Automatic annotation (TrEMBL):
Record keywords, A-Z: Signal
Keyword Iron carried by entry: no
The keyword Glycoprotein is annotated on this UniProt entry: no
Subcellular location: Secreted
A Pfam family assignment: Polysacc_deac_1
InterPro entries listed in its UniProt record: Glyco_hydro/deAcase_b/a-brl, NODB_dom, Polysacch_Deacetylase
The protein's name in its UniProt record: Polysaccharide deacetylase
Species of origin: Actinoplanes couchii
Length: 263
């Protein structure tokens, strides 16, 4: 790969969770190992908007964009200290309507992920230098909503974040990764200038800025595995194959169920 491409990572909870959603939680010590391995391999670790800005200015630096979805409280207590120790920047995507609550869209597994951050927690995260991005209001797949619901999900979450944080909120993460032409257009028109999905491959700057793909590190990725994953090399961890992303598939299944209930 050339260094004008951008690998981006999609983390969720910084904790340890059992059951079918275990891949959505990476324990703090594993996160620290993964970040250290990436730094050791010569990557600068930055938030997504910062990475895109640097690429646009012609930077040829080796970078990895580090992102965390949803806004679990463990991001503040475990994620921020791990990032600080690694000298890493990051983007945290807040599910605005769930701040101070729980991750209800995870169904019976929501409580395993602990509480979501409060607005005060989010202030603290922003003050630590982490970019705050928008992850919609209620974390519903956006491509099945009516036009009015879609605007409410994207616009009101964006405006509430900007009013609270008193800074521009430039990045958006599609809940469950789902997007469409209409969804991308509404996200762009509401004041965001980039957005990210799932994708599992590196981003090429000439591609759509409103569908930046991300890799999902799991608790089974050693630091070396993660470097291999983003560089397209063989991932050696045997356990990795065994678990081949069941957590993400489960969340999408839950989302589809929720989508049917809504329409
Ligand atoms: Zn999410």
């Amino acid at each position: 790969m050339t260094w004008s491409t951008l690998p981006a990572l999609m983390y969720h909870s910084v904790s340890s969770v059992g059951g079918p959603l275990r891949d959505l939680a990476v324990p703090p010590e594993r996160l620290a190992e993964q970040l250290a391995a990436l730094s050791g391999a010569g990557y600068r670790l930055v938030g997504l908007t910062e990475a895109l800005d640097l690429l646009e200015r012609g930077s040829a630096e080796k970078m990895v964009a580090v992102t965390f979805d949803d806004g679990y409280r463990d991001f503040l207590t475990q994620g921020v200290p791990a990032l600080r120790k690694a000298g890493a920047g990051a983007t945290l995507y807040a599910s605005v309507g769930h701040l101070g609550g729980r991750a209800g869209w995870l169904g019976e597994w929501a409580d395993d992920f602990g509480p979501m951050m409060t607005w005060e927690d989010l202030d603290e995260v922003a003050a630590s230098g982490v970019e705050i991005g928008n992850h919609s209001l209620i974390h519903h797949p956006l491509d099945v909503l009516t036009a009015a619901q879609l605007r409410e999900e994207v616009v009101s979450s964006h405006d509430r974040l900007e009013q609270r944080l008193q800074r521009k909120v430039r990045s958006f993460a599609y809940p469950h990764g789902y997007n469409s032409d209409l969804v991308r257009r509404v996200v762009e028109q509401s004041g965001h200038d980039n957005a990210t999905e799932v994708g599992r491959r590196v981003h090429t700057p000439s591609e759509r800025r409103f569908a930046v793909p991300r890799f999902q590190p799991t608790p089974d990725h050693t630091g070396a595995d993660l470097v291999a994953l983003i560089e397209g090399g063989p991932v050696l961890s045997a356990q990795l194959k065994q678990y081949a992303q069941p957590g993400w598939r489960m969340v999408r299944k839950l989302a589809r169920k929720a989508g049917r209930n809504l329409t």
